[in-house]
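User: Round two. Same drill as before: sequence, then structure, for each protein.

Assistant: Same drill it is. First protein:
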Amino acid sequence: MAVDLLIRHHAADPHFNMAFDECMFAYALGHPGAVLVRLYTWQPGAITFGFNQNQETALDFARVGDTPVIRRITGGRAVYHDVSELTYAVAINPHTSERAELGGRTSAIYRLLSSAIMTFLERRGVRSELVQKSSLENSRPEFFHKAPCFESSARYEIVAAGRKIVASAQKQIRGVVLQHGSMKVSGLAAHPALDSSASPSVTTSQPVDRERFDRAVSVFAEVFSTTLGVELEVAQDLPDMVSALERRVCEVKKNAQTRRNIFEQTS
């Protein structure tokens, strides 16, 4: 039987957040038909940077301070996840007949999940649109390795009033997908370790309180259930993954910036 869950974590530790997304992907890899959707926030804020980025140029480590820095298993560029943002993750294994329509090319999955996110934003009063063509900067390697993620818009990313408000990244193995992303619903917070001179910033980041988060979870579950054609059950954990999650949190904390090919042996 397929597992369809919406998992929620309010004000979670950054290492836990990245470890849990990795566990979602690991679970989906082993469970055909699984659809796992997650909504979470950060406490404290953290910087994550992409699988393919050069650690030395992704951000200014001299100005990191006490902010945790973690390499993602997905692509994209460096992002500061402040305490005011909502972050989503989706893991899908489409390898059953009833879930085959959820598979396909990377671009098709981006469009599908972007449609759900845009509907979620609209329900929150934010009108957005999908970028149809990547900005020219994205084709320059020096820009990719050094520029923060919100400095430009790539194809299938989401903008509002001409500004990027959702940044997503993806990983696929054998057609199983993990996509997660940062939703800047309360504005883009600056961090001195990232060059944000071309971006708007907020001087203070108000944490997402529990009441706002609970409302967001309710809408998120409804929107993604409808878009993906599933019945998502709200949960806190993955079935039978407690010990695996504990080990992965320890691994992320120990090797936060150097871990890379942890799933490649299964590809």
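Second protein:
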Amino acid sequence: MRAFVTGANGFVGTHVVRALLAEGTEVRALVREVSDLRNLQGLDVELVYGDLRDGERLAPLLRGCDELYHVAALYSTRLEDGPLMYEVNVQGTKHILRAALANGVRHVVHTSTIGTIGRPADGSLPTEATPFNLWDTASDYVKSKYLGEQAALAMAQEGLPVVVVHPTAPVGAYDLKPTSTGQRIVDYLHGKLPSFAPGGINHCAVRDVAQGHLLAARRGRVGERYILGHAAGNLQLADFVALMAEISGIRVLLPRMPLRSRLRSLWRRAGETGHRPLALTCDPTKAIRELDLPQTPLRAAFAEAVAWFIEHGYVRG
């Protein structure tokens, strides 16, 4: 069996590639000429060069592939990158999925983000059934990922066997950039209190997220969405700090105002203004139940990330 992986050199993508290779699947990886390929060094992967925006060149690249894992996306917080994110995350998604349909690919997984899962008005944990209701406050990245996800689900109606996955905050090795999650860990290791969504963030071992992609391809229901997260992964800032202190031996002081009081204040203000405080928590029960998503203990995932960042020179002193 041969799998085609976009974004194979990225944090989640390299773990998807490694999971595929571990089970004996051949991997063909789409990369750009300017891609950083360090995460793929030493791996038995067939590299093909191209750009998601160049739709005409994609179909020939997928010939002979049984599966497609579309992990690639453009992420940026710069306003000037907004148009490019729509080109890559929306139009690029349409291009690669149409190429998969033209080649009769049997299993397709489209990687979205936890950011496109809506937030219940009562503050309860959202699931895949919670409609996206954050358009007015969402970033261009989240909006572009939402539109790309909708394009993928629409193609399921055209006969493409696509499943959509929503990774939460992945934690582990090979976080080269690093991601926003990895940057929080690096900041903490430098003795800084990291930025953190006031409503909390769900964390999950990146290896479990990668395995969730493979499970979604083989066990997921076509046209369905699955949150790839950890049942015990909803962390508030205080939980994150406590976990990092236990693993690293470094203690960073929290603000004087108790966290619970801060959260109550945020939700009270949300009721007055109609704007929900930023939260990336969730209920990943569906993926755990239907896909048998692994649940590596968070301490092990964070310990792996800490060790990798230290070993690779991300931490000074």
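DSSP finds ten helices and ten strands in the chain.

User: Perfect.
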